[in-house]
Amino acid sequence: MKKWIVSMAAVGMIFALSACGAKETPKAEPANGNPAAQQVKLVATNFQFDQKEYKVKKGEDVTFSLENKQGLHAVQISGVNVGLDNNNKTKTVKIDKAGTYDIVCSVPCGQGHATMKSTLIVE
């Protein structure tokens, strides 16, 4: 029994020492594979987004991501092919037309659902 304990301790020490010398794992690229895309993080709490408006540049890739900080929400952006929810938290699109687009919660989330809106401004 003592030999087994000593052997397991030795294996653990070897593993720990090899992990210390391991190279740092590179940061993961966004799910879209385009790290150069503009990033728009939509943080949702009960009945509001973290910003009243989000601005992006027209004609460039934009990666939208959704973080549900409070409650369960999903996002639709009028006129833009973006639908985010707990299963699809990021999406990259290119918006070629300048303008103002409505961002809404697309999951009935409670009493304040109807007022859970924001704006995307494409310049």
From TrEMBL:
SUPFAM superfamilies: Cupredoxins. Residues 1-21 form the signal peptide. Keywords: Signal. Pfam families: Cupredoxin_1. Residues 9-109 form the EfeO-type cupredoxin-like domain. The keyword Signal applies. InterPro entries: Cupredoxin (IPR008972), EfeO_Cupredoxin (IPR028096). This is Cytochrome C oxidase subunit II. The lineage of its organism: Bacteria, Bacillati, Bacillota, Bacilli, Bacillales.
